[in-house]
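Researcher: Please predict.
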Amino acid sequence: MPFSIKQVVLLSAGFGTRLKKVTQGKIPKAMAPLAGKPLLEHHLNQFSRFGVKEFFINLHHLPKAIRDYFGNGSKWGVKIHYFLEKNILGTAGGVKSFEGKLGESFFVIYGDIFSLVDYSKMAASFSKKPKGCIGMELVGETDHPEDSDLAETNKDLLFTKVYCKPHTSIPKRFKGMRGIYIFRKKILKFIPKNTYYEIDRNLLTEILAKGEKFYGYETHGEFLKDVGTLDRYRFVENYLKSLKQ
């Protein structure tokens, strides 16, 4: 039986300040509409295609909009768990909140990414990593390295260094960090409870310093774009329109 992962944490607590023209301050960033559906719904549909049936969504800004729309997930044939952050906990802190319900391996994705990635291929790649691998992130080229987190890897895509934005200079050799992860549960022990903690700036920097093995994963020909700015949001809008033509 092929290796599969059944759970994903959708990080959705962000304010979406740079998307105010889209959200109008009435919906959280992860609910921004694309092709007639909220961004989060695209995540549910895409992960479901590849056997993910249990979703964990952290909430903070305008949480009612997400809860009211998705409920317990039964409309989509999935199960949804929520955690309301009274204070923003950061990307790693948002994952830590679900520690008691997460299995041995699970996906994590930033809620402001639009992705058509084949998650079964990513899971299969992860299953072949050397024993002791604590996690993996999708990496690749980026057309905006100046405001992206960047990673240095060896020939096997083993992470050797993380360069967090903002950058005073762009490193000569780098892979863009794309915000889609697979974690083994043991990575959670490095995240403090009830504390603001980021995956890139804090968690990955710490685990690399402690000698843990964290790998990159590259995919080609699969559409993936963050929609954190209005320009990139419009780019995804136009891409989806082109698919209908």
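Model: The chain has a mean pLDDT of 93.
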